Amino acid sequence: VSPSTSIYCTLWTFGEYSLAVIGEYLMASISIQRHAFIFHPNLFRTPFKSFLFFYAPLVFNVAYPTTFYLYAIILYPCQSQWDYTSTVCGYMNCYYDNKILGLFDWVVNNIVPIVFIIIANVTIIVRVVVGKRRRNQVVSWRQQRYMTIQLFNISSLFVIAWSPSIVIGLIQQATSTSLFVDIQLNYVMELIYLACLLLPWACMSLLPEFRKWIWKYFDRARIGHSTIVP
User: Fold this and answer.
1) Sign of torsion, CA 18 21 27 33?
2) What pLDDT sits at residue 94?
3) d(CA 76, CA 93)
4) Distance of CA 106 to the CA centre of its chain
5) Does residue 164 have a cis peptide bond before it, meaning omega lies within 30 degrees of 0?
6) CB 184 within 8 Å of CB 165
7) How many whole angstroms separate alpha carbon 35 and alpha carbon 125?
8) Inter-residue contact 124 to 147 (CB < 8 Å)
9) 201: domain range?
10) Which of 7, 54, 72, 107 has the highest Cβ tally under 10 A?
11) SS3 of 86-131
12) Contact 72, 101 (CB under 8 A)
């Protein structure tokens, strides 16, 4: 870790933890709101309902993680013993010593949003499939199918990135074993970065014009150009 200072580690973990959980909560909220957009569009017709069911959750998803980690990492009265030879300063935040606060952070800030993402996306696919088979449909499935697929692809990225860490954490809690600690800290936790690094590409890959440009680029590279010489 460079610079190897307590201030740097404190600010780094505050920023990383806050942004990671903000991303989780936003994805969970958007997954749930997609149900309302498809099946209950009238919820967003009035300004009050639009604020209550759309804007207020988005504000909460940004404000809550920031406030929680501001208290837990920066304001909580303890002294963290950082490990400057490990990634993310060894994940040695001292608020973990408070078992209630540490368990709350792990369950509410990591497990709960991923569970909501999975449930919301599985149920929306089931509702779309069931709805297509019904007659006298109110919902235009052709218009919603593309956005449903788009949401499912992006949310799957969060599930793939976070699930290994959560599963190993559950195993550790259930068996009280430290067998997977090194794997968790040095390898599995790094998978979480995939959600940040690949999200822009996942979004762009679903844009028709971007896909056409990519295929045209690869076709051009595959065909190549012949050089005419004397």
Assistant:
1) negative
2) 92
3) 10
4) 15
5) no
6) yes
7) 10
8) no
9) 6-225
10) 72
11) CHHHHHCCHHHHCHHHHHHHHHHHHHHHHHHHHHHHHHHHHHHHHH
12) yes
At 197, which CATH number? 1.20.1070.10
Residue listed under structure tokens 């920023």: 15
What is the spatial distance between Cα 162 and Cα 150, in angstroms, rounded to a whole number?
Answer: 19
Task: Count up the domains in the chain and report the number.
Answer: 1
Contact 76, 95 (CB under 8 A): yes
pLDDT in tens, 25-47: 998 998 888 888 877 777 778 88
Q: How many Å apart are CA 43 and CA 49, to the nearest integer?
A: 6
- State the average pLDDT over residues 150-173: 84
144 in a domain, yes or no?
yes
CA trace torsion 84, 87, 89, 95 (10° rounding): -150
Residue 56 tokens read as 């207020």
Query: Taking a C-beta distance cutoff of 8 angstroms, is the pair 92, 82 a contact?
Result: yes
| Helices 141-175 and 193-205: angle between axes, nearest 10 degrees | 170
Residue 1 lies in a domain: no
Quickly state the pLDDT bin for 49 (edges 50, 70, 90). Answer: confident
Asked if residue 104 is part of any domain, the answer here is: yes
Distance, CA of 148 to CA of 97 (rounded, Å) = 42
